Amino acid sequence: MRDILKRTLDYLHQKDQKIFMYLNQKIKCRTLDAIMPRLTHLGGATFTILLCAFFYLFGKEEARLAASEAFVALTGSQGIVQIFKKSIYRKRPYMVLPNVNTFWKRLLRDYSFPSGHTVAGFSLAVVFSLYFPSYRYAIYSLAALVGFSRIYTGMHYPSDVLSGAFLGTTFALLTHSIKKLIVS
Questions:
Q1: pLDDT for 44-88, tens place per residue?
Q2: C-alpha separations of 179 from 2, 64, 124, 127, 135 in Å
Q3: What is the pTM of this model?
Q4: Are 154 and 102 in contact (CB under 8 A)?
Q5: Please, what's the b/e burial string for 61-70 (b: 16 or more CB within 10 A of its CB; e: otherwise)?
Q6: Can you list the domains of the chain with their CATH numbers?
């Protein structure tokens, strides 16, 4: 049984690396090189916290409720991200694979799993989509693009991004459910 599990994990890891290399190197072009390093910051701490603050300070009642709930989902999910990163120790792709395209001179030295930017993007996307469903396609598209940008810029494997999307979505739904229980 252990042998089957090991072979399965090895197979998945190889596929993960293969998909990473395709998205990081094979589709590389000037347009994406210009867009992706900027777009990736939409999942960063500065943008996500400022977005919540902006909606809370300047929004109407529904926007303020969404912003406060999104902030709780964001901070809680990022706490979980740090627990995973400090217990799984998965090195970032550019630390392991040859010829990875990166876009910054100063690279991160923390761990790869899961993608915190993707977790943040989906935490906010789910909450804001629950409050503003007519914008959900645009909101989820932006969150997905943040996840894609993390692979394109060499920061994360696809499984880091998929896990981040799952974690962000789950934590946001959990936060929303708890809020509904408390308010009811």
A1: 999 999 999 999 999 999 999 999 999 999 999 999 999 999 998
A2: 42, 14, 15, 11, 22
A3: 0.91
A4: yes
A5: eebebbbebb
A6: 2-183 (1.20.144.10)
Contact 131, 179 (CB under 8 A): no
Is the torsion defined by CA of 37, 12, 160, 169 positive or negative? positive
User: Hunting for tokens 């094979």 — which residue is that?
Assistant: 26
Task: Report DSSP letters for 113-172, one per residue.
Answer: SS-HHHHHHHHHHHHHHHH-GGGHHHHHHHHHHHHHHHHHTTS--HHHHHHHHHHHHHHH
Residue 10 predicted with pLDDT over 90: no
Token output for 18 = 């293969």
- Burial-class residue 184 by CB neighbours within 10 Å (0-12, 13-18, 19+): exposed
Residue 112 pLDDT > 80:
yes
